[in-house]
Amino acid sequence: MSPPRFVHLHVHTEYSLVDSTVRIPALMARCATERMPAVALTDQNNVFGLVKFYRKALAAGVKPLVGVDLRIYNDDEPARPYKLVLLVQDNDGYRNLSKLVTQSYIEGQYRGEAMVRREWLTAKSCDGLIALSGGLHGDIGHALHAKHDDQARSLLDGWCDVFPNRFYLELVRTGRSGEEQCVRASLALASETGTPVVATNDVRFIEPGDFNAHEARVCIHEGRVLADAERPRNYSAQQYLRSADEMAELFADAPEALANSVEIAKRCNLDLKLGGSVLPAFPIPQGQHEAAYLETQARRGLDAALGHIFESRGIAGKERAVIAAPYHERLANELGVIQSMGFPGYFLIVADFIRWARENDVPVGPGRGSGAGSLVAWVLGITDLDPLEHDLLFERFLNPERVSMPDFDVDFCMEGRDRVIEYVAERYGRERVSQIITFGTMAAKAVIRDCGRVLGQPYGFVDRIAKQVPFELGMTLDKALEDSDELATMYRDDEEVAAIIDLARSLEGLVRNAGKHAGGVVISPGPLTDFAPLYCEEGGNNVVTQLDKDDVEAVGLVKFDFLGLKTLTIIDWAVRIVNEMHEGADLDINRIPARDAMTFELLRSTRTAAVFQLESSGMRDLLTRLQPNVVDDMVALVALYRPGPLQSGMTADFVERKHGRTRVEYPLPQLEPILKGTYGTIIYQEQVMQIAQVMAGYSLGEADLLRRAMGKKKKEEMDKQRSRFVSGSIENDIAQEKADEIFEMMAKFAAYGFNKSHSAAYGYISYQTAYL
User: Fold this and answer.
1) SS3 287
2) By the 8 A CB rule, do 47 and 546 touch?
3) How far apart are CA 772 and CA 592, in angstroms?
4) How far are the Cα atoms of 131, 675, 753, 762 from residue 634, in angstroms, in the given order?
5) Which of these, 383, 385, 425, 334, lies nearest to 700 by C-alpha position?
6) Taking the CA atoms of the chain, what radius of gyration do you get in angstroms?
7) Are strands 558-565 and 409-413 parallel, antiparallel or unpaired?
8) Which ranges of the chain have pLDDT less than 50?
9) Which of 330, 575, 580, 682 is the most buried (most CB within 10 A)?
10) For position 316, what pLDDT does the model report?
């Protein structure tokens, strides 16, 4: 195999947001096809796509090179900053790049564009980085173009001091005005000073035919029309991912510029550690360890919780020990798992900020998601639901047989949520706490409107096309053409419609903008810039990580979800009003009776305006049919009122069984304790896990893996699980035919099964609002 002749070192992807149609999977597919040994990611002022790029490159057998196309403030023309391409040599270089990019957003924005100041770039701040001059658009290229040769030499000397033996004059030939003159002048300067040169193609799209889509994207961003003769033409049709042969032909007069691209690729060796996790240290009393401190706090919390149970139920004497035994056993088991998986600090951190919220009058939800299944979470005050009373499973939240981070989703009052985040920032250090970025994409309806506008079509005409796209989550243009006969006819019969839709299809799904995740917050053990740069709006507002929620976790940061729930605010207002208007009422919403007759009468009457999750006409219809009279019915309501159970007949069957119109039957007598509360039907994921435990001897950790396999429906994994389930059932004297039958039943219901912990928590909020 011949040695590589060229590597692309200057490539924008869709994550530049303003001027590229390069999608990372397509980029890697092309690199693999062309047998390119490496390729660089150099998006404009950001590393939004870093982890996705890194992973896809490794999967394609391509060496990932990471960098940034940086903007440098131009004192003479601030609106026309200089460009400098920085490439990461090693992990120290990545940290330095992360700091510079962060600083450009927090301190250096001009009219919404992030820029660095020249004085920020020093030998120390740029250690571990290789620099390319930016070609015609760098400060040296600008000076050469203006024939200010002395200034160009002076600038070059300055850059070589910052990047000793790591600065290259960038040569670009894409047919744009002034480029060839800049290339010739750069070669002369390189010859005179002994500075190395390197060729790039300043890539913005993959195929030559993608230029029109690229120009449309630029016009969408700039609010211009493609046919506008006055609009700037800053790009050329030659800025595609040229092959090594094409680049060799283009730079036949400067073979060293090609060879240096390969040499630079060899010098860049960023080693991203993906898949681990690092937690900040929780401040505990001196001389104690996190695990021991967690156990002390948990046992103290359990004693208090049991004391309340004994008092409220009038339990005394020996009966207390009987009631307490399963709680102590469960606590010991959970603590063992938490400690073995290294998560004591995580529980302590969450418990701490929830404690602060409660002490500072910020209402907190009873729980959300699978976290409500943890007894440790309950006794620490993280959740409000007794998992033993509600038959919730810890393994649904934290599975000792599948190592993954725990993930508490915590609801806070909308008005107080930001105060809790502020507390966390103060406690752990502002340089270690940030919210998380999200990316908006060009979705089907919106991209039709965008493309119609840049093509200069009238609003009404474009609006009529866009309205033919069905309003459905995850809708794509291809699916819309299949589902909408009207749209398909318009596309077939009208060339102007076809032109809009064809252009829209080429742009659909591209990243459009950056935003802020609804509730995600990361807390790092050191400065966040050691892991990822930060991004913010002009003025330093709304600081977020440059990596999205999946990617921050991939690089090792732990995500905490601080979610805002308006219902908690309303509950808080209502409780305050009651206590202010009725002296001695002393209403505590967490101590209301669980079987209040008037509350269930209200629910059965369907007068549920302002009752959490029970306001819609469909839910009121279900209330009419179900006629809830116990808390378990409230939990079931949340799980049953979803498209899957409603369309499959599961909801109707549940109602008929509850009212005795359909006989309640159990597949096996030993499954009655698991299915009795749901009248013989499987509606919760936890029931699937319990059935596997009782019938086939699964541990609850193994049963959680079974539940996941059934949810994903991967045949190979399902076949493996079926074999395990059936053989385990046979060992427990259950006939193979019966085991197969129940496995099929579980697989069917698993498609619609819901997380009982979440249902219980949200059903409880529904009950609270109905009580009020």
Assistant:
1) coil
2) yes
3) 10
4) 62, 16, 16, 9
5) 334
6) 31
7) parallel
8) none
9) 682
10) 85
Beta bridge partners of 522: 434, 559
pLDDT recorded at residue 537? 85
User: How many helices and strands (H and E) does the chain possess?
Assistant: 32, 12
Widest Cα–Cα separation across the chain? 97
Query: Looking up tokens 């399902």, which residue turns up?
Result: 718
In CATH, the architecture of 443-505 is Orthogonal Bundle (1.10)
Q: What is the pLDDT of residue 1?
A: 57
Residue where the block lists tokens 């896809």: 56
Q: How far apart are CA 67 and CA 85, in angstroms?
A: 7
Burial of 730 per CB tally in 10 Å (0-12, 13-18, 19+): middle
Q: Report whether 770 contacts 603 (CB < 8 A).
A: yes
CB atoms within 10 A of CB 546: 29
Token output for 684: 């919760």
Region of residue 193 (phi > 0: left; psi between -120 and 50: alpha; otherwise: beta): alpha
Residue at token pair 């940290």 = 95
Pair of tokens at residue 10: 């200057």
Q: Is 318 helix (H, G, I), strand (E, B) or coil?
A: helix
> For residue 627, what pLDDT is reported?
94
Structure tokens at 728: 């385990």
Say which amino acid occupies 24. Answer: I
CB distance 50 to 66 below 8 Å: yes
CATH classification code of 14-133+171-180+198-267 = 3.20.20.140
pLDDT the model gives residue 86: 98
Distance CA 746, CA 698 (A): 15
Angle at 697 between CA 696 and CA 698, to 5 degrees: 95
| Predicted local distance difference test score (pLDDT) of residue 481 | 94
CA dihedral (523, 527, 531, 537) positive or negative: positive
Transcribe 297-316 into DSSP letters.
Answer: HHHHHHHHHHHHHHHHHT--
| Buried/exposed code over 83-109 (b: 16+ C-beta within 10 A; e: otherwise) | bbbbbbbbeebbbbbbbbbbbbbbebb
Residue 710 and residue 719: Cα distance in Å, rounded?
10
pLDDT at residue 541, as a whole number: 77
What does the CA dihedral 713, 716, 717, 719 come to, rounded to 10 degrees? 90
- Structure tokens given for 325: 């035994």
Q: Are 626 and 657 spatial neighbours (Cβ–Cβ below 8 Å)? A: no
Q: Is 511 helix (H, G, I), strand (E, B) or coil?
A: strand
For residue 53, give the H/E element and its range.
Answer: helix 50-59
